[in-house]
Design goal:
By secondary structure, the chain is of the alpha+beta class. It has 2 domains: 207 residues, Aminohydrolase, N-terminal nucleophile (Ntn) domain (Glutamine Phosphoribosylpyrophosphate, subunit 1, domain 1, 4-Layer Sandwich); 214 residues, Rossmann fold, CATH 3.40.50.2020. Helix content is 29%, strand content 24%. It has 17 helices and 23 strands. It has a 7-stranded antiparallel β-sheet. Helix 5 packs across helix 6. The longest helix is centred in the middle third of the chain and has 15 residues. The N terminus and C terminus are likely disordered. It binds iron/sulfur cluster (SF4). Iron/sulfur cluster (SF4) binds next to helix 8 and helix 16.
């Protein structure tokens, strides 16, 4: 593997992104949890339409981030990056795809991004790239490094220059700093210095690397292309769309890379290094809500887990009702489980407008109700019925209240809200955009107070043991219980302490 080469700027075309002009906030609902990113990497032993394959894969990962998308491709000589704010189909128009279709391309990485408030700037779109003693490196990242600020400060003191405000740049600068180490060794060293929850794909002009933090908080899987090439993706459905076969998950704390010096026939060897001691606690919310219903993560199916959560919820919190209604799409799996375990018929009592996420209408203060109505409408299935309404979570509670109201307006006689996760009381520091703690309704209200706020006849949440058993493995539950398995950023702990001073259950 050529990993200690000198920079060759003249041989490399770096295409800077153009403004897309899309208002990112128009695409997201502040009362929902948002995954921050999806990542993708591809290496092929022979030229392939890499950009087109990555675009397909990113399309399958669109649910993990809808505010920006990017692709970086290389043919061993040129390296081209195209990225911008917007959905995958908006960013990669024909002009951009033409620029990415460089001759004889055989490797690349891709990224979809949801950015937290204040950082939805175009220059934060990924993949990010740096020129270094190892040549040009590009990186795409899902998750958060909890010690990023401290390391950033150290790097600044040693003369590093940062072009973005996101923590991904910290890792790439860290790797670039180890000039005497080859790319694999430098990446392993950076993994040891960084803490938090992160899955990363990284490339130079010859190879692709993929890695997962020691807790395996964010998912990352490996697939094999029919021509012997390798694909790395946040979730298996991206492999399927790219024509790759699922091989296995990247293990917590593992670094894998394609060893291009060891080509065997048409393929190449996938090398692995267990850099960090595995302490698996993947994010429970991947199974509760984020990952696609057709995904298997760490050997556990998301749809099946959601059904088990619903079954368990029905046992823990039964209701006298006539129909079980999911909040589409996130509540469907759990509602199926609740219906099966309770014997209460399942029906679609809410219709979701599939185009609502693309609206650019910005509801004003007076138009808040319109925001839910743009997205959801009650069906006649609830008229005259006692309804069990099943959703995956409550963040601020405002949307839940409006949905209860919609059902009542459509003739529901009772609305019993059942949530297939425990109350969210703490922020996530591992790549999910929860609200600040003071904005989380369960952080400042009891379940009974939340019930009154949303106007439901009854409200119940799934217990922590219920979530654990439904998933069937060790998981991170920090946003429910405040026990962070991969550490907390010091500055956030101080900030949260100040923000919540005086805030208590009234
Ligand atoms: S804190 Fe919550 S959202 Fe964040 S990784 Fe843990 S379980 Fe997932």
């Amino acid at each position: 593997m050529k990993n200690a080469e000198s920079p060759q700027p003249r041989a490399t075309k770096l295409v800077e992104p153009k403004a897309f002009g899309l208002p990112p906030s128009a695409l997201s609902d502040p009362d929902e949890l948002h995954e921050e990113c999806g990542v993708l990497g591809l290496w092929s032993p022979e030229p392939l339409p890499v950009a087109d394959l990555l675009q397909l894969g990113l399309f399958a990962l669109q649910h993990r981030g809808q505010e920006a998308a990017g692709i970086c491709v290389s043919n061993g000589k040129d390296l081209v990056i195209e990225k911008d704010l917007g959905l995958v189909t908006q960013v990669f128009d024909e002009a951009r795809m033409q620029r990415l279709r460089i001759p004889a391309a055989n490797l690349g990485i891709g990224h979809t991004r949801y950015s937290t408030t204040g950082s939805n700037l175009r220059f934060n779109a990924q993949p990010l790239n740096v020129r270094s003693s190892k040549g040009i490196l590009a990186i795409a990242h899902n998750g958060n490094f909890v010690n990023a600020l401290q390391i950033r400060q150290e790097l600044l003191e040693h003369g590093a220059v940062f072009q973005t405000t996101n923590d991904t740049e910290v890792m790439i600068n860290l790797i670039a700093r180890y000039a005497k180490l080859n790319l694999v060794e430098a990446t392993a060293r950076a993994m040891r210095e960084l803490t938090g929850g992160f899955s990363v794909v990284l490339m130079d002009r010859h190879t692709v690397l993929a890695l997962r933090d020691g807790n395996g908080v964010r998912p990352l899987v490996i697939g094999r292309l029919p021509n012997g090439g390798w694909v790395f993706a946040s979730e298996p459905p991206a492999l399927t769309l790219m024509g790759a076969e699922f091989v296995r998950d990247v293990r917590p704390g593992e670094l894998v890379w394609v060893e291009t010096n060891a080509q065997q026939g048409k393929g190449a060897e996938l090398r692995s290094m267990q850099v960090l001691k595995p302490r698996p606690t993947p994010c429970a919310f991947e199974w509760i809500y984020f990952a696609r219903a057709d995904a298997q993560l760490d050997g556990i199916g998301t749809h099946e887990s959601r059904i088990r959560m619903g079954e368990r919820l029905a046992q823990e919190a039964p209701a006298q009702a006539d129909v079980v209604v999911p909040v589409p799409d996130s509540g469907i799996g759990a509602a199926i489980g609740y219906s099966r375990a309770s014997g209460i018929p399942f029906d679609f009592g809410l219709h979701k407008n599939p185009y609502a996420g693309r609206t650019f209408i910005q509801p004003t203060q007076e138009m808040r109700d319109l925001k839910v109505k743009l997205k959801l409408a009650a069906t006649p299935a609830v008229a005259g019925k006692r309804v069990v309404l099943v959703d995956d979570s409550i963040v601020r509670g405002t949307t839940s209240g409006r949905i209860v109201q919609l059902l009542r307006e459509a003739g529901a006689t009772e609305v019993h809200v059942r949530i297939s996760s425990p109350p969210i009381k703490f922020p996530c520091y591992y790549g999910i955009d929860t609200a600040a703690r003071k904005e989380l309704v369960a952080s400042t209200h009891t379940p009974e107070q939340i019930r009154a706020l949303i106007g439901a006849d009854s409200l119940a949440f799934l217990s922590e043991p219920g979530v654990r058993e439904a998933i069937g493995g060790p998981v991170c539950l920090a946003c429910f219980n405040g026990q962070y398995p991969a550490g907390q950023p010091e500055e956030e702990v101080r900030k949260e302490a100040l923000e919540t001073e005086g805030a208590s259950i009234p």
